[in-house]
Design a protein that fits this description.
Length: 511
């Protein structure tokens, strides 16, 4: 198509020129030619970042690590004929590895990036850059090298803080506020891709708040600035020369940049870095609740206009709000003045809050908004408590339990929402191994293809509440379902407990 258009254009110009010659209009053509002006240069793209990069390169470092790994491979060392051109190669490769058939030690090396945040020698990088390292060496832009000491790490955000002992103050870079950055703003990444040395790339912020399932507090900045192998732990700068992100991950089928890179924003990293410097570990806030998303069906059941917030599905025993202001079934909409739009927002804003701080929490309970005050515990202490609480069970793991008998052997009511129900008494507790502290109505059978089966409700589960009302008998369940139907509800919100008492909310359609 392109060739055809170009050929047609040439023919038209030729015919026009011939006509002009026949009409003796050569001077007119000369005048027209004289009126043609050279194109005026116009600036393309952003201004040069050379001056900005020049002032930052010295603060970005290469981090080299080595790790001694025990090689359990029992294969003998290859036998190479004397005088073979490969003899030197194999001798060097297997040097110091213990010879034939032994457990040999080998050294694994890796490269990453980091940046200086304090002239005294404080350096930030990714945890995965230095994880498991026996030796950490920091290489500076001027060619000097220093051994580094690990101050602290945080696996949840993939951050690590190192300390070196320089003879004179180092060039450091300031930490900026990533919250001020907008999609489309220019950013600059500096790192050490493929071990080449300090490398500068420029791009824009492509997106904010990305969740790539890398950890519980995912809130990544996405950028198209080239980030490659070895860039991990390097800084992402704004155009003021402030660090607004720590380059951590890329999406790539080849291992090279395809313009989809992710950085931990400083709004999340700043507090973690400060804690690692001060304590050598993190001190995150902890609320002590189990949560789940608020779906459209759950929102309708709770008389909420839009699905938002985090639904409290359980309270951890011994936690900060055990027996306190927050109850199971509440929906948390705001925490310490910050909106909780999605469930995943809550763990992050709670973790960023100081331990022991009293905060206001906006919740929805019984269709009404209210504000309660809670005092936070420490997550690192609470994780052990939560794990112990989750393991609480009426029987020890590994003990023999009889298979539940068929539903016909248990007294059961009529079918409600595809479920046959029974009173939760001593016999049913024994049958299903249900904990003594679980109260409600036991589900004896779930009919296949029913509304309850769609929600993966199973026999042995216990209905604790329906529509935020406690259930004691099968008759209570039937009456509450009919009441919700009469109220025009299409779904029933059930609080379901498993045999250990772990709670979850499900919506079951009643149509």
């Amino acid at each position: 198509m392109g060739l055809t258009i170009r050929a047609s254009f040439f023919r038209s110009v030729t015919l026009a020129a011939s006509a002009a010659l026949l009409m003796n209009t050569v001077p007119a053509l000369s005048v027209a030619h004289a009126q043609v002006k050279a194109p005026v240069p116009t600036q393309q793209g952003p201004e040069s970042v050379a001056d900005l990069a020049a002032g930052l390169l010295d603060a970005v470092v290469n981090i080299s690590t080595s790790q001694n790994v025990k090689n359990d491979d029992q294969a003998p060392m290859p036998q190479v004929p004397e005088g073979s051109p490969f003899q030197d190669f194999f001798d060097e490769f297997f040097k110091g590895q213990g010879g034939e058939g032994g457990n040999r030690q080998r050294t694994v090396n890796s490269l990453g990036s980091g940046f200086v945040i304090d002239p005294s020698g404080i350096i930030v990088t990714n945890n995965h850059v230095i994880e498991g390292a026996d030796d950490i060496e920091v290489n500076f832009a001027n060619g000097s090298k220093l051994k580094a000491k690990l101050i602290g790490t945080d696996t949840k955000t993939d951050l690590a803080v190192l300390k070196v002992e320089p003879k004179k103050p180092l060039t450091a870079v300031p930490i900026g506020d990533s919250r001020q950055m907008r999609i489309g703003d220019w950013v600059m990444a500096i790192g050490n891709p493929f071990g080449l040395g300090g490398t500068v790339t420029v791009g824009i912020i492509s997106a904010r708040g990305r969740n790539i399932n890398a950890g519980p507090y995912d809130n990544f900045i996405q950028t198209d600035a080239a980030i490659n192998k070895g860039n991990s732990g390097g800084p992402l700068f704004n155009m003021k020369g402030e660090v607004i992100g720590i380059n951590t991950a890329i999406i790539s089928p080849t291992g090279g940049s395809i313009g989809i890179g992710f950085s931990v924003p400083t709004e999340l990293a700043g507090n973690i870095i400060s804690q690692l410097r001060e304590f050598g570990e993190t001190h995150r806030g902890w609320l002590g609740v189990r949560i789940q998303p608020v779906t459209a069906d759950i929102a309708e059941s709770l008389k909420m206009e839009t699905p938002k917030g985090a639904l409290v599905a359980g309270i951890i025993k011994g936690g900060p709000v055990d027996g306190g202001a927050i109850k199971t079934g509440d929906v948390i909409l705001k925490f310490d003045g910050r909106d909780v739009v999605e469930m995943r927002d809550l763990p992050r804003v709670v973790a960023e809050s100081p331990v022991g701080k009293a905060v206001d929490v906006v919740i929805v309970r019984d269709g009404k908004e209210m504000t309660v005050k809670v005092t936070l515990g420490r997550l690192e202490d609470g994780e052990n408590l939560a794990e112990a609480d989750a393991k609480t069970s009426p029987t020890e793991e590994g003990t023999d339990q009889a298979e539940p008998p068929p539903a016909a052997d248990l007294p059961a009511s009529d079918v409600v929402l595809g479920m046959k129900l029974s009173v939760l008494d001593a016999e049913s507790r024994k049958t299903y191994g249900i904990s003594e502290d679980v109260e409600g109505v036991v589900i004896a059978e779930v009919q296949p293809q029913s509304a309850a089966a769609e929600r993966r409700i199973a026999s042995g589960d216990v209905i604790v509440e329906i529509g935020q009302e406690a259930m004691k008998t099968p008759e209570d369940v039937s009456a509450r379902v009919e009441e919700l139907k009469a109220d025009g509800r299409r779904n029933a919100l059930l609080m379901i407990a498993n045999k250990t008492g772990e709670l979850r909310f499900v919506t079951v359609r009643m149509e």
